[in-house]
Amino acid sequence: MRKKKKVAVIGAGVSGLAAANVFKQTGHAVSVFERSHDLGGVWEPSRSYPGIQTQSPKELYRYTDKAMPAHYPEWPNGAQVHEYLSSYADNHDLRGLITFNTETSAMRRRTDGAPGWTLSLARNGEAATEESFDFVAVCTGQFSEKNILTHPGQDAFTAGGGQVLHSSEYTDPALVGG
């Protein structure tokens, strides 16, 4: 018989939901910590840009235990992927495991001699608290931090009225209309 473990999953995007589901199905106590106000990672609507769609067909961009809806196009858009992820979380009772608006600011080995990790968690911008876990799955993805670049001539471009945007700031096609 397997001993029930206390597991933290950091991030409620595609990978975080999958990890949470597997840990839950195998009988572990799962807590998911999501920095945003909603699940979905890069597919969460406020983090997506207009017109975004998958780079893989829906038959490949899916969980093995849940197909994308038949009425979705071959290349689902961002809103459809977000709805699919929300449906997956609801179908597997994952939403209740997720604590939203929670920043994980540190992870270190436990200091009490027990195996595992201690996380520093700040909920809703409040002071961080600490919680220990047997295992931690870090599912934050590679797109969780902006990489702001500068380009030669950028100062002259912006001085002349040009605008430089990070992709996360592109929320309206009118911003780039010409």
Which terms would index this structure?
single chain; about 180 residues; alpha/beta; FAD/NAD(P)-binding domain; three-stranded antiparallel sheet; 3 helices; 7 strands; flat
What do these coordinates show?
By secondary structure, this protein is an alpha/beta fold. The chain has one domain (6-146): FAD/NAD(P)-binding domain. The protein starts with 5 loop residues before the first strand and ends in a 19-residue tail after the last helix. The chain is built from 3 helices and 7 strands, in the order βαβαβββββα. The mean pLDDT is 91. The strands form 2 sheets. A 4-stranded parallel β-sheet has the order 3-2-1-7, covered by helices on one side. It has a 3-stranded antiparallel β-sheet with strand order 4-5-6, with no helix packed on it. The chain has helices at 14-25, 78-91, 154-159, and strands spanning 6-10, 29-33, 98-99, 102-109, 117-123, 129-133, 135-138.
Encode the helix/strand succession as letters.
EHEHEEEEEH
Rg (CA only): 19 Å
Amount of beta strand: 15-25%
CATH superfamily, by name, is FAD/NAD(P)-binding domain
CA(first)-CA(last) distance: 65 Å
- For the residues shown, what is the average pLDDT? 91
> Helix amount, in percent?
10-25%
- What is the number of helical segments per DSSP (H or I, 4+ residues)? 3
CATH topology group = FAD/NAD(P)-binding domain
* Unreliable residue runs: none
Strand order of the largest sheet: 3-2-1-7
The CATH architecture comes to: 3-Layer(bba) Sandwich
Question: Count the strands?
Answer: 7
Number of domains: 1
Reading off the top of the CATH hierarchy, the class is best stated as Alpha Beta
**Overall SS class:** alpha/beta
